[in-house]
Write a structure and sequence with these properties.
With 197 residues, the protein is an all-alpha fold. It has two domains: 60 residues; 108 residues, no CATH class. About 19% of the residues have low confidence.
Length: 197
């Protein structure tokens, strides 16, 4: 007789388990629906915000500034010609000059040497700026005439401090050391044109 009493307990447990499972299923489905509704609301809000964004006009590049030619010598646009060019009869360049924009000599007998020379001039000008001096130079094929007048037109200082920064204080021959030869020695060394490489 204990068995008939046991059957109803099993049935009750099954009903309780079924009710719990049903409640969990309803909670899961309800939670999923709530999540889906929340996600849909977030997406709708984002789309509403995106619709309110103002489209900016396209950016247009400003035309490049032309560098005026100096006394009949054409200087290409953007050549980085120094302000000192207005006082000279030839283009004057400085540490800001992109040497690729400097016109090369016509019928250059040694273009490789020209490129090394220009590279050295740019290195010297940048090195001198780091030393606190503005150093200007001119392409020797564009500046002709009296070397003293050319030097004066460049407007470089002639102080002992400037000359020391430019040339250094080193000996000649076996006593020469590029590390003591100022910005000029540094440029010659960096371009591989001394015997110290």
């Amino acid at each position: 007789m204990p068995e008939p009493e046991y059957e109803p307990r099993r049935a009750r447990r099954a009903k309780i388990a079924l009710a719990v499972a049903g409640a969990l299923t309803i909670a899961a489905v309800g939670g999923g629906a709530a999540f889906a509704m929340t996600s849909a609301a977030v997406v709708a809000e984002h789309e509403a915000e995106a619709a309110q964004l103002v489209e900016l006009p396209p950016v247009t590049a400003a035309p490049p500034t032309e560098v005026p030619p100096t006394d009949g010598v054409e200087a290409p646009a953007g050549a980085g010609v120094s302000d000192a060019s207005s006082d000279a009869e030839f283009p004057v360049y400085d540490a800001d000059t992109d040497i690729a924009t400097i016109p090369r000599p016509a019928d250059d007998p040694d273009p490789a040497n020209t490129e090394i020379w220009l590279t050295q001039q740019r290195i010297i000008a940048q090195c001198m700026r780091e030393q606190g001096f503005e150093h200007r130079y001119a392409a020797y094929w564009l500046a002709s005439g009296d070397p003293v007048l050319i030097r004066d037109a460049l407007g470089n200082p002639s102080s002992d401090e400037y000359l020391l920064a430019l040339w250094g204080d080193t000996g000649a021959g076996d006593d020469y050391h590029w590390e003591e030869a100022g910005c000029h020695g540094y440029a010659v060394h960096v371009t591989g044109m001394d015997d110290a490489n």
